[in-house]
Protein backbone atom coordinates (compact mmCIF):
# COMPACT_ATOMS: atom_id res chain seq x y z
CA UNK A 1 0.00 0.00 0.00
CA UNK A 2 1.46 3.34 -1.05
CA UNK A 3 1.42 6.66 0.81
CA UNK A 4 -1.48 8.02 -1.23
CA UNK A 5 -3.68 5.08 -0.28
CA UNK A 6 -2.68 5.38 3.38
CA UNK A 7 -3.50 9.11 3.35
CA UNK A 8 -6.90 8.39 1.79
CA UNK A 9 -7.65 5.78 4.47
CA UNK A 10 -6.60 8.16 7.25
CA UNK A 11 -8.80 10.94 5.87
CA UNK A 12 -11.79 8.64 5.53
CA UNK A 13 -11.44 7.28 9.06
CA UNK A 14 -11.06 10.79 10.51
CA UNK A 15 -14.17 11.97 8.67
CA UNK A 16 -16.12 8.98 9.96
CA UNK A 17 -14.90 9.61 13.52
CA UNK A 18 -16.08 13.22 13.34
CA UNK A 19 -19.52 12.04 12.30
CA UNK A 20 -19.67 9.50 15.13
CA UNK A 21 -18.70 12.18 17.63
CA UNK A 22 -21.50 14.37 16.30
CA UNK A 23 -23.83 11.45 16.94
CA UNK A 24 -22.47 11.12 20.51
CA UNK A 25 -21.39 7.51 19.98
CA UNK A 26 -19.82 6.05 23.12
CA UNK A 27 -16.01 6.43 23.10
CA UNK A 28 -15.47 2.68 23.43
CA UNK A 29 -17.82 1.97 20.53
CA UNK A 30 -16.32 4.77 18.46
CA UNK A 31 -12.87 3.25 18.86
CA UNK A 32 -14.22 -0.14 17.81
CA UNK A 33 -15.99 1.25 14.74
CA UNK A 34 -12.89 3.22 13.77
CA UNK A 35 -10.64 0.19 14.11
CA UNK A 36 -13.00 -2.02 12.08
CA UNK A 37 -13.34 0.60 9.35
CA UNK A 38 -9.58 1.04 9.09
CA UNK A 39 -9.10 -2.73 8.86
CA UNK A 40 -11.73 -2.99 6.10
CA UNK A 41 -10.23 -0.10 4.13
CA UNK A 42 -6.72 -1.52 4.49
CA UNK A 43 -7.85 -4.94 3.30
CA UNK A 44 -9.66 -3.34 0.35
CA UNK A 45 -6.57 -1.30 -0.55
CA UNK A 46 -4.47 -4.47 -0.58
CA UNK A 47 -6.91 -5.84 -3.15
CA UNK A 48 -6.68 -2.68 -5.25
CA UNK A 49 -9.97 -1.10 -4.12
CA UNK A 50 -9.69 2.59 -3.19
CA UNK A 51 -11.28 3.93 -0.02
CA UNK A 52 -13.50 6.27 -2.05
CA UNK A 53 -14.80 3.32 -4.09
CA UNK A 54 -15.68 1.34 -0.97
CA UNK A 55 -17.18 4.19 1.06
CA UNK A 56 -18.64 6.32 -1.70
CA UNK A 57 -18.79 10.12 -1.96
CA UNK A 58 -20.82 10.61 1.24
CA UNK A 59 -18.49 9.61 4.06
CA UNK A 60 -20.80 11.05 6.74
CA UNK A 61 -23.75 9.07 5.44
CA UNK A 62 -21.62 5.93 5.27
CA UNK A 63 -20.52 6.47 8.88
CA UNK A 64 -24.12 6.93 10.01
CA UNK A 65 -25.12 3.69 8.33
CA UNK A 66 -22.23 1.84 9.95
CA UNK A 67 -23.24 3.09 13.39
CA UNK A 68 -26.88 2.17 12.80
CA UNK A 69 -26.01 -1.30 11.51
CA UNK A 70 -23.70 -1.90 14.48
CA UNK A 71 -26.51 -0.90 16.84
CA UNK A 72 -24.25 1.36 18.90
CA UNK A 73 -25.82 3.45 21.63
CA UNK A 74 -25.49 7.21 21.70
CA UNK A 75 -24.35 8.98 24.84
CA UNK A 76 -27.55 10.78 25.94
CA UNK A 77 -26.01 14.15 26.72
CA UNK A 78 -29.35 15.88 26.01
CA UNK A 79 -27.72 19.29 26.38
CA UNK A 80 -30.62 21.07 24.72
CA UNK A 81 -33.23 19.57 27.04
CA UNK A 82 -31.04 20.11 30.08
CA UNK A 83 -30.35 23.77 29.30
CA UNK A 84 -33.95 24.52 28.35
CA UNK A 85 -35.07 22.96 31.62
CA UNK A 86 -32.49 24.50 33.94
CA UNK A 87 -31.97 28.01 32.58
CA UNK A 88 -35.54 29.35 32.87
CA UNK A 89 -34.76 29.62 36.58
CA UNK A 90 -32.32 32.34 35.59
CA UNK A 91 -35.05 34.41 33.97
CA UNK A 92 -37.30 33.86 36.99
CA UNK A 93 -34.61 34.98 39.42
CA UNK A 94 -33.78 38.05 37.37
CA UNK A 95 -37.47 38.95 37.23
CA UNK A 96 -37.48 38.88 41.02
CA UNK A 97 -34.30 40.93 41.09
CA UNK A 98 -35.76 43.51 38.72
CA UNK A 99 -38.86 43.78 40.89
CA UNK A 100 -36.70 44.23 43.98
CA UNK A 101 -34.68 47.05 42.48
CA UNK A 102 -37.48 48.88 40.70
CA UNK A 103 -40.29 48.19 43.17
CA UNK A 104 -41.51 50.34 46.06
CA UNK A 105 -39.35 48.46 48.56
CA UNK A 106 -36.10 49.46 46.82
CA UNK A 107 -33.57 51.27 49.00
CA UNK A 108 -34.13 55.03 48.91
CA UNK A 109 -30.50 55.92 48.25
CA UNK A 110 -29.30 56.34 44.69
CA UNK A 111 -26.04 54.56 45.47
CA UNK A 112 -26.66 51.17 47.11
CA UNK A 113 -23.93 49.92 49.39
CA UNK A 114 -21.54 47.29 48.10
CA UNK A 115 -22.75 44.86 50.77
CA UNK A 116 -26.35 45.28 49.63
CA UNK A 117 -25.40 44.70 46.01
CA UNK A 118 -23.40 41.56 46.82
CA UNK A 119 -26.21 40.26 49.03
CA UNK A 120 -28.74 40.84 46.25
CA UNK A 121 -26.67 38.93 43.73
CA UNK A 122 -26.02 36.16 46.25
CA UNK A 123 -29.77 35.74 46.71
CA UNK A 124 -30.12 35.67 42.94
CA UNK A 125 -27.51 32.90 42.65
CA UNK A 126 -29.28 30.86 45.35
CA UNK A 127 -32.61 31.24 43.57
CA UNK A 128 -31.09 30.15 40.27
CA UNK A 129 -29.44 27.12 41.85
CA UNK A 130 -32.49 25.93 43.77
CA UNK A 131 -34.89 26.47 40.88
CA UNK A 132 -32.64 24.78 38.35
CA UNK A 133 -31.88 21.71 40.47
CA UNK A 134 -35.48 21.09 41.46
CA UNK A 135 -36.77 21.59 37.92
CA UNK A 136 -34.11 19.35 36.35
CA UNK A 137 -34.67 16.58 38.86
CA UNK A 138 -38.43 16.41 38.44
CA UNK A 139 -38.60 16.88 34.67
CA UNK A 140 -35.55 14.88 33.51
CA UNK A 141 -35.17 12.21 36.17
CA UNK A 142 -35.87 9.50 33.55
CA UNK A 143 -32.60 10.25 31.70
CA UNK A 144 -29.50 8.13 32.43
CA UNK A 145 -27.15 9.38 35.17
CA UNK A 146 -29.48 12.23 36.09
CA UNK A 147 -28.90 11.91 39.88
CA UNK A 148 -25.17 12.30 39.23
CA UNK A 149 -25.90 15.22 36.90
CA UNK A 150 -27.93 17.03 39.56
CA UNK A 151 -25.19 16.42 42.12
CA UNK A 152 -22.54 17.72 39.72
CA UNK A 153 -24.69 20.77 39.01
CA UNK A 154 -25.03 21.38 42.74
CA UNK A 155 -21.24 21.47 42.95
CA UNK A 156 -20.42 23.39 39.77
CA UNK A 157 -23.24 25.94 39.57
CA UNK A 158 -22.26 27.74 42.80
CA UNK A 159 -18.68 27.89 41.56
CA UNK A 160 -19.82 29.31 38.22
CA UNK A 161 -22.03 31.80 40.04
CA UNK A 162 -19.18 32.82 42.33
CA UNK A 163 -16.96 33.46 39.31
CA UNK A 164 -19.62 35.26 37.27
CA UNK A 165 -21.03 37.42 40.07
CA UNK A 166 -18.00 39.74 40.46
CA UNK A 167 -17.94 40.22 36.69
CA UNK A 168 -21.66 41.02 36.65
CA UNK A 169 -21.37 43.37 39.63
CA UNK A 170 -18.41 45.13 38.00
CA UNK A 171 -20.46 45.66 34.86
CA UNK A 172 -23.40 46.94 36.91
CA UNK A 173 -21.07 49.41 38.63
CA UNK A 174 -19.94 50.81 35.27
CA UNK A 175 -23.55 51.76 34.47
CA UNK A 176 -24.26 53.04 38.00
CA UNK A 177 -26.40 49.99 38.81
CA UNK A 178 -28.98 50.96 36.24
CA UNK A 179 -32.20 48.96 36.19
CA UNK A 180 -32.78 49.58 32.49
CA UNK A 181 -33.89 46.48 30.63
CA UNK A 182 -30.89 46.40 28.23
CA UNK A 183 -28.54 46.50 31.22
CA UNK A 184 -30.40 43.70 32.95
CA UNK A 185 -30.35 41.71 29.70
CA UNK A 186 -26.56 41.99 29.55
CA UNK A 187 -26.26 40.98 33.20
CA UNK A 188 -28.51 38.00 32.50
CA UNK A 189 -26.36 37.02 29.52
CA UNK A 190 -23.17 37.18 31.59
CA UNK A 191 -24.59 35.03 34.34
CA UNK A 192 -26.39 32.74 31.91
CA UNK A 193 -23.24 31.99 29.92
CA UNK A 194 -21.39 30.96 33.07
CA UNK A 195 -24.26 28.80 34.30
CA UNK A 196 -24.79 27.18 30.90
CA UNK A 197 -21.13 26.23 30.79
CA UNK A 198 -21.37 24.73 34.27
CA UNK A 199 -24.47 22.72 33.31
CA UNK A 200 -22.82 21.28 30.20
CA UNK A 201 -19.68 20.42 32.18
CA UNK A 202 -21.79 18.79 34.91
CA UNK A 203 -23.58 16.60 32.37
CA UNK A 204 -20.34 15.51 30.72
CA UNK A 205 -18.83 14.80 34.14
CA UNK A 206 -21.84 12.74 35.21
CA UNK A 207 -21.76 10.66 32.01
CA UNK A 208 -18.02 9.98 31.93
CA UNK A 209 -18.28 6.58 33.59
CA UNK A 210 -21.55 5.72 31.83
CA UNK A 211 -20.16 6.54 28.38
CA UNK A 212 -16.97 4.52 28.87
CA UNK A 213 -18.88 1.25 29.39
CA UNK A 214 -19.36 -0.62 26.09
CA UNK A 215 -22.93 -1.39 25.15
CA UNK A 216 -23.92 -4.85 26.46
CA UNK A 217 -25.17 -6.13 23.11
CA UNK A 218 -21.89 -5.17 21.45
CA UNK A 219 -19.89 -7.02 24.08
CA UNK A 220 -22.05 -10.08 23.60
CA UNK A 221 -21.55 -9.89 19.85
CA UNK A 222 -17.81 -9.79 20.23
CA UNK A 223 -17.88 -12.69 22.64
TrEMBL record:
Membrane-crossing residue ranges in chain numbering: 82-101, 113-138, 150-174, 180-202
Source organism superkingdom: Bacteria
UniProtKB keywords: Membrane, Transmembrane, Transmembrane helix
Designated name of the protein: Uncharacterized protein
Biological source species: Asanoa hainanensis
Amino acid sequence: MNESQQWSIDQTVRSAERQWRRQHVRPADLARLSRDLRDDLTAAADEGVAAADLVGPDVRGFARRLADEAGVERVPYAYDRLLLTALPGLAFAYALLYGYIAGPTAPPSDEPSLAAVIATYAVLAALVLATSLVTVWFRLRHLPAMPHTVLAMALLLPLAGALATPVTVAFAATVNYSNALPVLAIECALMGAALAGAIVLARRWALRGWASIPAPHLSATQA
